Amino acid sequence: MTHGTVLLVDDEEKILKTLGRALREEEHEVTTTSSPQEALRLLGARQFDVLIVDYLMPGLTGMDVVREVQATLAETERPGVLMMTAHGSVRNAVEAMKLGVRDYLQKPFDIDELLVSVRRTVEEQQARSGLRYLLSEQKAQFGQYGIVGHSRAVQEVIARVELVARSRSTVLITGETGTGKELVARAIHDRSAERTQPLIRVNCAALPESLLESELFGHVRGAFTGAVHARKGRFALADGGSIFLDEISTISGSVQAKLLRVLQEKEFEPLGAERTQKVDVRVIAATNRDLQVLAVEGRFQNDRYYRLNVIPIRIPPLRERREDIPVLVEHFMRRIATSLGKPDLRVEDGALDTLVNYGWPGNVRELENTIERAVVLATGPTITRDLVLLMPGAQSTGTGLPSGRLHENVSWAERESILAALRASGGVKKDAAEALGISQRALSHYLGKHGID
């Protein structure tokens, strides 16, 4: 069942108590007031999914409240309105519907009738919120790279995705830039039972610290300078579905604390709000950094790391699965060449050898961009080695390292050192650990980190 936030307004305390209890039993978050003026203040301070308002009250009528909502709140911030009345008429009902009232309930009515109407309104409101978000997401340019390949490493990632999708557990996806962490997050959501609910994406590194908290948790009107309207955060938009937090390692300590509360208690408070909001959402986080190292350095709290790392999924860099490069090249060639009107274009063997032997510091994303550039520049029937060599960064770094990026080189050196020690020891882990100068426990950590059996 979809649960929502409800503001119930009636000047009769008995009705407030009876209907409030019934709505809370349906697990809606309910705020009640007998004052229409207080209702308007609450509507300006925070966002509700549903407003249930009595038609006739002292001071202001329900119609007055609805007109004020129409005049002061942006369309995207308005609740769905249900109106109750003991003095109904066809004329009043028509006027209410013209103002956008979703349902017009004649007192006395069956409480189940109200509950059904509230449930339907909540679902419509949240579906619209999700649609608005998805429409805005269409404007963003996401890479079209995918989980493509026949290597054992890729098949293990796909198998883990299938298993994880059946649960609601928190997932931490790790991998270098360009490996496809967002695609894995989308695959998990699309294979889950909540696939019809929204998957909300947040790039934590793209937002300044001053805005990230509001973006994630929302704010009430007047919470800070410029907060003219109350706004739902990404967690509220993701209610019932999933939220993908990319570059999770960049968030500040204060936002980490609020995130921990969501992970533990499934609740949060929007900026400036006095009330707690409940949320049912699966968190999928991603990072290209080693959160365990950051935790040791004090830059990421241990308890938050362990709460995020419930189910880890490591995506290997492209240099660790070179056997997939020809498959990826074919995949990108087919799509890009066809879209550019060159469906018969092929990659010559020499060019393919160059692609397979390159270190790919930008991983699959860099490979896709490389293929696109080569297709655009090609004037003949084939992609030649010369076209590949024209690409910025396609030459070797000259250092024997896979890239010019420090953390990527460190990760590569760790993995290569461990593999060399295991080969020298004939696979005996005790001897390999001794040769590396580390404990067996430390070796086990590195084996898991780099996905080495």
Please describe what this structure looks like.
It is a single chain. The protein starts with a strand and ends with a helix. By secondary structure, it is an alpha/beta fold. Helix content is 47%, strand content 13%. 35% of the residues are buried. Strands 2-1-3-4-5 form a five-stranded parallel beta sheet, with helices on both faces. It has a five-stranded parallel beta sheet with strand order 7-8-11-6-12. Strands 9-10 form a two-stranded antiparallel sheet. The chain has helices at 13-25, 36-45, 62-72, 90-98, 111-137, 152-164, 181-190, 209-217, 234-237, 253-265, 291-296, 302-308, 325-339, 349-357, 363-377, 385-389, 406-424, 429-436, 440-449, and strands at 5-9, 29-33, 50-54, 80-85, 103-106, 171-174, 199-203, 242-246, 267-268, 277-278, 282-287, 311-314, 346-347, 382-383. It contains 19 helices and 14 strands. Strand 9 (267-268) and strand 10 (277-278) form a beta hairpin.
